[in-house]
Amino acid sequence: MGFDNGCRRNCTPVDKGYVCVLLYWYTILIHAPLSALDLFHINTGSTEPIYRQLVELVRRLVASGQLRAGDEIPSVRELAQGLVVHPMTISKAYGLLEAEGLLERRRGLAMRVAAQHRRAQAPLDRAELLRPSLERAAQEARELELSAAQALALFNEILHAGEPKS
Amino acid sequence: MNSTTFSIAAEAGLPAGAAALAPEASVALSGLSLRYGGQAVLSGLDWVLQPGQVVGLLGRNGAGKTTLLECLLGLREPDAGEVRLFGRSVTQLDDELRARVGYVPQQSDLFEGFTAGQLLAYFRSFYPRWNEAKVEGLMSRWEVPRDRLISKLSGGQQQRLSIIRALAHEPDLLVLDEPVASLDPAGRRDFLRELVERVLDRGTTVVFSTHILSDLERVAFNVAFLKEGSIACQAPLEELLDQVRIAIGSPAELQALQAAHGAQLLRRQPLAPGREQWLLRFARGVPAVALLQPLNLEDLFMELS
User: Fold this and answer.
1) What is the distance in angstroms between the Cα of B294 and the nearest Cα belonging to chain A?
2) Distance of CA A53 to the CA centre of its chain
3) DSSP E strands: which ranges in chain B?
């Protein structure tokens, strides 16, 4: 717990040998929840409070499939230490995500992404979750110099193919 | 210019139920006034810090932050008003109570003729609760040389040493006056990490002044704005970001907006004839109105301090 941070800070191959480096990779490879830490980031100086940035980040991570049902997420303590943020801010974000059914708390165990959402989200909210993917797609479409009509036709085709986009 | 002040229940940052237990406030200042060279620095200031609260003290240069923190610690006597720490008057502070307080002053007050090791050994003798393992750990992680004269340490190293000294006896109240002013970004991050990993956990009440708003945003759950000699506003930062908005328009238009949503007017500034800028707080939720602009912490600082 928090081992990788301490290691990164304290050990260099010169003073402590390669053991720490190896252990660091070991922790990353073996313990999935720790690597999930790398998915989390925040911005200071934003008009959006940090707890809300985290709520929206987790929604996007789940929507984009980077976090999947059953995946464990870092504990409040781990994330507070990893992001260097007051633990109460993390608790608040997790609390809201739990209330909306995205995360589930298990006694004595790490929180995880809920197996299924108990409450169906309103259609408008659901559509909003698509926005980051569409913004990325729009960006790529512009880079490829596709016209709006071409991009929309392709999207239409994909939607009607009846297959979930991977 | 109308600037309306407001204050929030100090326990707003604590979990529900904590207030019901009515723990003794770590700090309670009431009616604090102090004049300095004929000028009022503090005027009837009231301020309460509950146990476990982490409060960032914000104010412009010369607003009196250092004076306020010195009064809070009993280092400076106010002209009027009372300071209570853990329920006891600061004028009757005994060694036992003093040992529960840690202070990092803005100006280093370390004995320059000592080495860092000698300084720590000296302070250790005053405190029944002194965590030598913590001191050892911080000294090596923060790379403060033990055997060099303090006068030969860099400004950053002196500041680190000052912080180590303040954390060593695991105080219940930690007062930091610009603790990171001479630290580089890596040093600041080390300090914040220590706060998050080992200080906040203990339920320590922390008050610190800083102009580095990004640091404050990470660790200060609450912010307090010192303006014109009193605390103009104290609230959880996330609540302010969620609820406070700027609106520009005609006074009539703005008044209608305020009334319709029961918003609190925090500040109003004329911009041009018939055109004003209002700072409004929507405690019941921000309405979806195009003319409302969100603020970040820097904007809040500009508006409220």
Assistant:
1) 6
2) 11
3) 2-3, 27-36, 39-49, 54-58, 80-85, 88-89, 101-104, 173-177, 205-209, 222-227, 230-236, 244-249, 264-272, 275-281, 292-294
ipTM associated with this complex: 0.84
Q: Which residue is listed with tokens 């720790």?
A: A34
pLDDT digits (tens, 9 = 90+) for A75-108: 999 999 999 999 999 999 999 999 999 999 988 8
Helix (H) / strand (E) containing A13: helix A13-16
CATH of the domain at B263: 3.30.70
Whole-model pTM: value is: 0.77
Q: Are residues B21 and B34 in the same domain?
A: yes
Q: Contact, B63 vs B227, CB < 8 A?
A: yes
Q: Do B241 and A49 touch (CB under 8 A)?
A: yes
Q: Hey, how many other C-beta atoms are within 10 angstroms of the C-beta on B55?
A: 26
Residue appearing with tokens 């939720």: B285
Q: What is the domain count for chain B?
A: 2
Residues spanned by the domain of B285: 241-304
Which residues in chain A touch residue B297, judged by CB atoms under 8 angstroms apart?
44-45
Structural tokens at position B172? 């219940």
Q: Which of B216, B238, B260 is the last residue of a domain?
A: B238
Are A83 and B218 within 8 A, CB to CB?
Answer: yes
